[in-house]
Automatic annotation (TrEMBL):
Keywords: Signal. This is Cytochrome C. Residues 1-27 form the signal peptide. It comes from Grimontia sedimenti.
Amino acid sequence: MSPMLKRALCVSLVLTPALLSSTTAIATVTQFEGQNDWVMNKETSDERFKVLQKQMRGFDMTMFETGARFNTFYFALKNQNYDMATYQWKKIKKTIVNGTERRPARKANADAMFINSQWKMMQAAIDSKDDAKIWETYETTKAVCNACHVAEKVPFVKVVDPQYPMMPVQ
């Protein structure tokens, strides 16, 4: 072992107990530097939570993710990949449920029009693997989504059949 490595080891053995027992030393050790520490460099937990809340945004991000998943869901149905369709359908539900936690004012319509009704009908159609039933229920689902958008005062958001897959999956 080199003399420099021995010295560093000795210093660390001597300083470690002191660092662990000192709250000011711990605070110094946990300081963050650089632009990538934009959350941890906030002084208080409240400030950290506020910056995270701001980044998570509102129901717009919920709908953005839902739209991306709906695109993959649609092409999974077209390709009769029912496992992928089920996977995306369950993720859509989770995304909307999580979104209503961030924006509780959206919960009543999301639950009544989708989570507690149409979501279950679409899942049952997928489970049946009956293409006629799937596509009939899919059309109803689109109509329910658009009705919810009207109820939530965003009627300009219209769900239509995707023309191209967003993701390189079938």
